[in-house]
Amino acid sequence: MGVVPVIKRWDRWGLCADFGNRKVLICIPGREACVASPTAGARGIMLLEVFLLLGTLLIYYFFSKKNEETLPFKDGWWGRGQKPETKEDSSVRPFKVETAEEELSDLFRRLDQARFTEPLENSCFHYGTNSVHLRKVVSYWKNQFNWKKQVDVLNKYPQFKTKIQGIDIHFVHVKPPRLPEGQAAKPLLMVHGWPGSFYEFYKIIPLLTDPASHGLGDEHIFEVICPSIPGYGFSEAPHKQDFNSVSAASVFYELMIRLGFNEFYTQGGDAGCVICTNLAQIAPSHVKGLHLNMVLVSKLGLSHLLSILLGRYFPGLFGFQDEDVRRMFPFLKKWLYKILSEFGYAHIQATKPDTVGCGLNDSPVGLAAYILEKFSSWTDMEFRNLEDGGLERKFSLDDLLTNIMIYWVSGCIVSSMRFYKENLQKGIGTQKHEKLTVQVPTGIAAFPNEILHIPQAWAKKKYTNIVSFHFMPRGGHFAALEEPELLAKDILQFVDKVEKEQLWKKKGE
To answer: Could you give the CA distance from residue 497 to residue 433 in angstroms, rounded to a whole number?
Structure first.
């Protein structure tokens, strides 16, 4: 609720209203100006009453809006059954990825019994994952892919679990191998999306925790925390409905505070973009900076509509740059057609995720087909024209299968898909976090092959303090895995700007 103004006095100087700890003088004519003549005085008093009412309402709206700019923390209970009366165990426990031989034997049995469907001639990846190439992937999976070796890769970084709001939260926590004297590491929370996992960040982690060894300097060194979203990977799935992005942001906020970080940076794309945005809305005084490699805009107004209709012809009028025009237009092809052709999965997952999910959870080949298709088209839409989906042009099969195996061995595909329903079942643009702006310093890395391009002119309506917006030279949706060095450099330059701006403000105080 906003602060209700209390009228303190109305005298010759004007109206004085009290807003709790603030007093505001409204500069409208005082009483003496309205009583020179009875008629003029009556009209003047009437006008003053109108001004008084309008002024009070405007100031009330202003202060109410300011008070509501933070998003409420969502303190939920997502464990089984009723919340116990005893205090939750807040210990942080070491964790390692382990797989029993029985699990692997079951996997190979299912791979051996896979039933493939013959693709249409020359269809490439236009109908989804092409089964000709899928057979090759499955053959590699059975005969060459070494999961035990990849488990060692996963366990090379310290992993932990801790219980928050009734469920176990899994996270990777990597500290710098070395720090220059007198320098402290900057905490950075990195959040993945769907159908990715914490493994997406394994190539970028050393660039951030030890940038000097990779030619990126040592001015800013990070301590990186990569949690698995609840219901993804090795984080426990919520056992109750309504666990959405605000819930995840609240859980991760608790995680960072529990780890002793009062101030930290956040970074994310896909679902991680929304979660990190919500975290910046919940705790703006704790989030020093928000870096995104994908931006979502759920509220479109008249200005957006006009820019869609006329922005191609008058880009400067709507704040568009030449690159915005290239990426957005023709709008029907580069926006509307993409939504219709690429977002069918989202409608399924936002309505009946369990129906499809049950099949995917039972078939490793089906799971692979479902996930690989996204790593093809979301990396580059032109890859749909290739029989192999261009999958190995940007990723290795080991990396792709490691991500798939995280979904398989944890059995998390259904719960990961439910996250769409929890976030979209109430409609788009209807939730409070979608209506609130973000005041935290924001950096945006706009990769050219991201599914939909959001221009800075649109983004700044949501993110009001954009200090860095860059058109990246290459790369798509899975930026941290595909272009780790490009993303790391953009994060570093963004943090440098934020730190220097904060230093400048402190000197000016």
So the answer is: 26
